[in-house]
# Entry
Amino acid sequence: MSPPRYLQIKNYLLDAIKSGQYTPGNKIPTENQLAEQFSVSRMTVNKAIRDLVQANMLVRFAGVGTFVSDAKAESPLADIKDIAQEVQQRGKRYSCQQIKLKQISAYEMLAMQMGVPIDSTIYRSVIVHFEDDIAIQVENRYVLANLVPQYINQDFSKATPHSYLTKVCPVSKIEHVVEAVMPSKKVQALLDIDSHTPCLQVNRRTWSDDRLISFACLTHPGPTYKLRSIAAKEG
# Structure
């Protein structure tokens, strides 16, 4: 007796994942495509996919599609850790690419984020962080030039901006705003993803001695990254 059709589809997808046909972050065929391929209803396909989602083999994004899951890279949300140390603590190899490091004048929206007048001098850095040669974060950071004057002279291929800033301006307060976004063309190229891959974006502002020092926009590929927050219980 042959197994139920939904189980055949489930085993087909599992075999495709294990063989490397679909790798972590890859989008699998749509329910309609699988229903047509196996000559079954979408309800049957949905059951197979739902089982794999519950088993953490697949992850769904409403309106975008279903992707192969993985043991996701993880960052703490209630704290700031150096991404290089995070990667190394997972037993992986860290590397980065410095894309940009330059001086700019604060435009209206940036000036508002940084709490400074328009046209204030700002240093901007763009870094891509890698785990085992896979891009896991685009860091687009803005730093107040008058408070961190030597930022522009650093080599961030050797030490991360976080590592440098915590030495010269110890963090006293942080603010995180997290949202799901679709990647811009620039982010697609830097993370080596397609336009349909959803991303997690963290907008982070950091203060030192009650002075706003830095505003960073951190973009991660959603299917292979997660953020964690642990709150202490009261009482």
Remarks:
- The CA atoms of residues 135 and 192 lie 7 Å apart.
